[in-house]
Amino acid sequence: YPRQHSLEIHLSKFNLTEIKAMLGSYTKVLFVRDPFERLIAAFMQGMGSSPSFSSFVQDVLDNGQHNASTTWKPLTSLCRPCLVQYDYVVVFGFLRQELSHLLHQARLPADGLLPKLRDAEAQWTYSWLSEQMFSELSLQQKQQLSHFYRWDLSAFPFSGSLLTG
């Protein structure tokens, strides 16, 4: 869109006509990740001051969605998938397959542009880690997390998420 190319400008700064023109002129790609895996990654990266995963989750729940860090805030509140018609939704864990398809659709050579991705290894590691971390949580915390991320869980294909069952 010719008007602005600054990373600091949010769509909310434009009027509805400009927003529609901008969104219509781009291929919109959304990268998503299971919300529970996002919480684990945030905890592992030391984004909270909690000594245990369970207390970290409790801090997240106590602070609520409005005070949540963008690192673990529900994706539906950040990217507005009901308002923005994304052309592609790329799910973490299937990056190589989905990025290859995306590059093919854009008529770009996938072989030279894609880094080496080990999706299967990442999936296995996060599956194991998720089960370990999930077992640390109380039933109430599990239920509260499922409620906290209910819109993400219904908007995106996280069928294997521990928060869905």
Automatic annotation (TrEMBL):
- Write out the coiled-coil annotation as residue ranges: none
Subcellular location, record wording = Golgi apparatus membrane
Keywords recorded for this protein, A-Z: Carbohydrate metabolism, Glycoprotein, Golgi apparatus, Membrane, Signal-anchor, Transferase, Transmembrane, Transmembrane helix
Q: Which residues cross the membrane?
A: none
Q: What is its EC number?
A: 2.8.2.-
Identify the GO cellular component terms for this protein: Golgi membrane
Pfam families xrefs: Sulfotransfer_2
One GO biological process term is: dermatan sulfate proteoglycan metabolic process
This entry's Gene Ontology molecular function terms read: sulfotransferase activity
What is the top EC class of this enzyme, as a single word? transferase
Main localization, broad class: Golgi
Question: What is this entry's stated membrane topology?
Answer: Single-pass type II membrane protein
The entry assigns this protein to a family as follows:
Belongs to the sulfotransferase 2 family.
The protein depicted here goes by the name Carbohydrate sulfotransferase
